[in-house]
Specification:
Length: 238
């Protein structure tokens, strides 16, 4: 893929999955901000666009442990939705309680010596409080409507157009993205302090893994599912 400053970040990630980890290290938003050009994204992240371009030219192709992105533009929307639910929603439902347990242990043992942990705990609780009802709204409202639309059924809804729930979901994605950015900054990119125990390390490893999963999760919805659903509705209404 020929990369230019006007290349959309979301398109770049789809073509070259190895850029996900690189963008995450730099704070370049490819999920909620995947519609932005690379130049715009670099400006927002306060990164030198020329250096980013040079780094991308030498970035190694995907290696072990780097997820490969299926071309979801060729799959049905029902298949993409099923993937999102079984891969990302189910992961969060299993992982959030585990992280909550680790968070409690770390707060009790280390908060006296690490004042930032109180805010880390608050951010995690805010994430969990935002995410759990968000998953339910997608599974019970948005996803069934998109599936019915794809099957040729108009379906019944109180929102008139799929644009309405998509707008709400993307606003909630923005809120989650802001919390994740604050969490990364507060933890110095999940750096475990010198006196951190194994539980501390497990917590930060888990939080970083969750961040990566949420970035990919939001990317698939904002940059693939939602645009395709909107285009499908526009075609149906035309």
């Amino acid at each position: 893929m020929n990369v230019e400053l006007d290349t959309k970040v979301g398109e770049l990630v789809m073509a070259r999955p190895e850029t996900m980890r690189y963008f995450e290290r730099l704070g370049i938003d490819y999920c909620c901000g995947g519609h932005r050009s690379l130049g715009e994204a670099c400006d927002l992240a306060k990164q030198d666009a020329a250096k980013v371009m040079a780094d991308l030219a030498t970035l190694e192709p995907p290696a072990a442990g780097v997820p490969s992105l299926q071309d979801w533009t060729r799959a049905s929307l029902a298949e993409l939705i099923q993937h999102i639910v079984t891969t990302h929603h189910d992961y969060l439902r299993e992982e959030l309680p585990r992280l909550d347990m680790l968070m409690g242990k770390v707060l009790r043992a280390h908060s006296p010596n690490h004042g930032e942990l109180a805010r880390v705990g608050e951010i995690f609780q805010a994430l969990a409080a935002d995410l759990m009802p968000h998953l339910i709204k997608e599974e019970q409202i948005l996803f069934p409507y998109i599936t019915q639309m794809e099957q040729g059924a108009s379906g019944s809804s109180c929102f008139g157009s799929v644009q309405s729930p998509i707008r709400v979901m993307e606003m909630e994605h923005e809120a989650v993205g802001a919390l994740l950015a604050e969490l990364r900054e507060l933890t110095d990119s999940y750096t475990v302090p010198a006196d951190g125990c194994n539980t501390f390390r497990a917590l930060y490893d888990g939080l970083e893994t969750m961040e990566r999963d949420l970035h990919l999760h939001i990317y698939l919805e904002n940059q693939v599912l939602h645009p395709r659903a909107l285009a499908m509705e526009a075609g149906v209404q035309a």
